[in-house]
Amino acid sequence: MTSPDEDELHLKDNVHDFNWVPLSLTHVEYPKGDYLGKFLALISLSPFGIISGFIALILFRRDVHTIVFFIGTVCNEMLNLILKNILSEGRPMQRVNYTEYGMPSGHSQFSWFFATYIICFVCIRLHHMNNNSTLETVWKTVIVLSCVSFAVVVSISRIYLQYHTWKQVICGTIVGIMFGSFWFGLTHVVLTPYFPIIVSWLTDINIEEFGSLLSHDCCQSYYNVLRRASSKSTV
What we know:
With 235 residues, the chain is mostly helical. It contains 9 helices and no strands. Helix 8 (195-203) runs parallel beside helix 9 (218-234).
């Protein structure tokens, strides 16, 4: 039977035998004393905040469109991982905490996918939401500019912090815009007509109530169905 001291010594030897790697998911480095770098490092964490918001909305609202949007976000991340492993291009600066490839930039692709989808949603899907066309134009413009600014700052942060090259960020931008446009088109044209049916499965609403939905504006009809479902759930 070994003594406690021998067990501790044996454990330390085993620890040194392992190849330890840090979890790089949220570890962002910036030059010490560089306040701009610190700000951009915080901006680099914004995708995790967005994903947390997705999860919260899905858990508390169970909105079908939000779920589909989140699925698109997951597919976008999977596409990024596939492209990185196919292209196998390293990052501009070797870091201990980042061992994956850098082409295309995952943060850039995520931010532009998110921005593109939101812009398409606001400009194409949301219409006749306010009788004041000037006011509607103003808030839509604000949302579009905010989305573009967010994506641009995230992209610049990856270059400034030397996690990616310009080429990797531009590639991520192009892929993000293309996949964001594709996913919105798929959602708006193909999947939206089935949203009321999915809601009926989830809320036990009579399917006959959806007879006229496919011949109307699906977005407005879907909204009306959700309101009726919400009223029934609170009774």
